[in-house]
Amino acid sequence: MRVLIAPDKFKGSLTAAEAAEAMERGVKRALPRAECMTIPVSDGGEGLVEVALSASRRGRRIGGDYDADLRVTRVCGPLGDDHDARWVLMRARDPSGSHTSRMDEFTKRSDGHNRDEDHDSIAVIEVAEASGLAWITPGPDASLRADSYGTGQLIRAAVDAGATTIICGIGGSACTDGGSGALRALGARILDADGNDVAPGGKGLCHARAIDTSDLMPSLRLHHSDSESDCARIIIATDVSNPLLGSDGAAAVYAPQKGAGLQEIDVLEKGLSQWAACLSRLNADFDPGNGGMGAAGGFASGLTATCSAVTVPGFDAVAQLNGFDEALEAGADLLIVGEGSLDQQTLSGKVPVAAARRAGTRGIPAVAVAGAVNVQNDELGDAGISDVIGLAEVSDRAGDKDDTIQHAAEYVEGATEKLVRRFQSGETHPA
C-alpha cells in the first residue's frame, strides 16, 4: 500500500514536518509494509520556509531537482529593531529536469508571460520571518507604525544571491503598510506633497502623494524587457482573497489582529486609500478591488503594482514547490492530510481540503488527522475527506489543551494508526 502524507502545521505544537513524521510512524504501526511518502505542506503563510527545508533535512531532493540551502539575513523588524530572518535558496541540480519545467509552466500560467523562465535558483521567503507578528507586541501604536521593510531586505538578499524566482509567503504579517516598507528596501521612495519621505507604517501612508521608483532594483521592475536575462519574478502566495479597501479590506479585517482599535482602523484605511491612489497613478492597470490585494496588510498591492510580482493561491505555489502534484501523479492508495483545527475556514479551501480535492481528481481517497474537529458530516464529505479523527479520540485527557500540545506528536501518531486501521477495515467515521 502506498500512502502519501501531506499535513500542514499543527499551530502551537507541531511543524508540518514534525506532524508528517508522527503520521508516518502511525502508518507504519498499522501497516508495517506500507510505502510512505511524506510531503509537509503549507498554505503559503507561516511555515513555508520549514516546508522548503523539510525535504532537504530528510535527504530528499525537493521536487526531484533542487537542493535547499538555509540562509539567514539580518533585517529591520516591523518596529525598527534588527533581528535574524531565515529564508531558503533552492538550486537546481538539473535545469532541464521535470520540476524546473513545471515551474516554467506554473509562472507562465500565473502571470501570462510566454517566454522561458530561468528556475536554476529559487528563493523561498516569509513575511512572518522578517515582518511578522512574532516581532511585535500588538497594540494601537504598533498597528500604525509596523512596516514591511525587512521583507524587502529578504527579497533584495535573494536577488543578490542569484534567485530568479522568489516565492513569498505572506501570512502572519504585523503590518498594514501596503507593502510600502518592502518597496523602500528595494529602492523606491514614498513621498508626501512636498517631496519628502513619509514615515514608515500604515499611518505614514496618510501623507503619501507619489511613489518614486527610479532607484528600484532593475531586475524587479514591472515593465522589465522580456529580452533581458537578469529579471527576477516574485510569486506571492496567499490563501485569502480580500480587496485592499473597504469592509472586507486589509485594515478592517486584519488590523485588529495587530492591536488596532476603531480609531486606528480608520487611520489605516485612510492611509491605504492614499496608497491605492498613488499606485493607480503609477500603474493604470492596478485595481485595489482585486482579490488578494488586502492580504497581509495590503502587502501584495505595492509589489504587484510596481514590481514583476503576481499573487497565486498559496497551496498552488506550495504544490509546485515541493512536488506534491508529482507525488499524486506517481500514484497512491491513500492521502492523509492534517492541521491543528478542521473548521469552516478549512472547508473554504485551506490546505487539507485543497490537497484532498487534488487527490480526488485522480481517484485517491483522503482522510484527515486534526487537533480539533468542528465540521459536519456532509460538509466533510463534500470537501473530499472521507474520514477524520481528532486528537481527543486518542488522548488520555481529552479536552486538556496543554496536554494535547505537550503530547501532540504522540497523539498524532496514535490517531493516524487508528485512522489507517479504520480505512483498511472499510469503516468510515466522518466528523
Automatic annotation (TrEMBL):
SUPFAM superfamilies: Glycerate kinase I. The keyword Cell division does not apply. It comes from the Bacteria. Its EC number is 2.7.1.31. One of its GO terms (biological process) is organic acid phosphorylation. Residues 96-116 are annotated as: Disordered. Belongs to the glycerate kinase type-1 family. NCBIfam families: glycerate kinase. This is Glycerate kinase. It comes from Corynebacterium pseudokroppenstedtii. The lineage of its organism: Bacteria, Bacillati, Actinomycetota, Actinomycetes, Mycobacteriales.
